[in-house]
Amino acid sequence: MEDFKTMSLTDTYTLANDVKIPVVGFGTWQTPDGDVAYQATLDAIKAGYRHIDTAAAYGNEESVGKAIADSGVAREDLFVTTKLWNDDHGYEETKAAFAVSLKKLGLDYVDLYLIHWPNPKALRSEWAARNAGSWRAMEEVYNAGQAKAIGVSNFQIEHLEELFKTAVIKPMVNQLFLNPSDVQAELVAFDNEHNILNEAYSPLGTGRIFDVPEVKAVADKLNKSVAQVVLRWSLDKGFLPLPKSTHEARIIENGELFDFVLSADDTAVIDGLTGKFGSHLNPNEAEF
Predict the structure, then answer these.
(1) Which residue in 59, 86, 128, 143 has a CA-CA distance of 20 to 30 Å to 35?
(2) How far is CA 30 from the centre of its chain?
(3) Residue 64 to residues 28, 34, 266, 274, Cα–Cα distance (Å)
(4) How far apart are CA 151 and CA 117, in angstroms?
């Protein structure tokens, strides 16, 4: 495991194309557009987060973009991710959707653009061709400098292998449901083999980790919060966690991960939680 003792929110992983990506991102899934998303994003940037993750489907790109503009932090010092939603798969559709996202964010470029979902229900008979079209558009956006990196989200091995058949540039990131309950070990290993960074959304199991007594015992022993312990575990696994909160105190707390270490015994306890609070949704069976 890499030693994170001296790291901070501004330290980075290096993607396959040598772009630097901060090791923890601030997630905005399920954060309502308007004052809530604006203030939470502003609070995160104020707390030292430099990696902000949003998506067209979250419906909060405008508020996130306004917070970025009002933060006083130089654009080049922030890493901003957004994502293509299911309604816009295909070459022309992706080009148009990307332009809309840029406009809503008020940005000239994003640092990372992802295909949010590999196999939308409405496109299930043509998902591979639609992904290929979207990816071709994303490669063009990348080559034009409007996205500094491109990747995918929720893609399983079969979806990645299909994309590889037509891709000129491999995805640099795969954003996945990753937490102690579901580490998707085979997929994570596949991504690592192909130099695709594993980002962890719902790193706290959408809050369900707080009901697990084993983790609370580890947290109490270390005088840390449950969230801090689990986010540190995520970093130790080489993941890039994307914690989400709308409460300033928790936003700050979730970034304070670099002044303690998990022992082998602590890690073993957390590793033993497989299946305790949910698993990833099969994208081939999702009802959207």
Answers:
(1) 86
(2) 14
(3) 8, 9, 36, 34
(4) 11
CB 123 within 8 A of CB 155: no
Spatial separation of the C-alpha atoms in residues 67 and 80, rounded to whole Å = 12
Mean pLDDT of the chain: 95
How far is 42 from 251, CA to CA, in rounded Å?
11
Distances in whole angstroms, Cα of residue 24 to Cα of each of 43, 53, 109, 153, 257: 15, 10, 20, 17, 10
Is 116 annotated in some ligand binding site? Answer: yes
The maximal CA–CA distance of the chain, rounded, in angstroms, is 54
* Residue 2 in this model has a pLDDT that exceeds 60: no
Positions marked catalytic: 58
All structural domains of the chain with their residue ranges: 12-271
DSSP of 41-92: HHHHHHTT--EEE--GGGT-HHHHHHHHHHS-S-GGG-EEEEEE-GGG-SHH
| Residue 153, CB-side half-sphere exposure with 13 Å CA sphere | 24
Pairing of strands 26-27, 51-53: parallel
What number of CA atoms fall less than 13 Å from residue 44's CA on the CB side?
Answer: 31
- On the question of pLDDT at 3 being above 70, the answer is no
The correct CATH number of 12-271 out of 3.90.79.10, 3.40.50.12710, 3.40.50.1820, 3.20.20.100 is 3.20.20.100
Amino acid identity, position 184: Q
Q: How confident is the model at residue 286 (pLDDT cuts 50, 70, 90)?
A: confident
What kind and span of H or E run contains 14?
A: strand 12-14
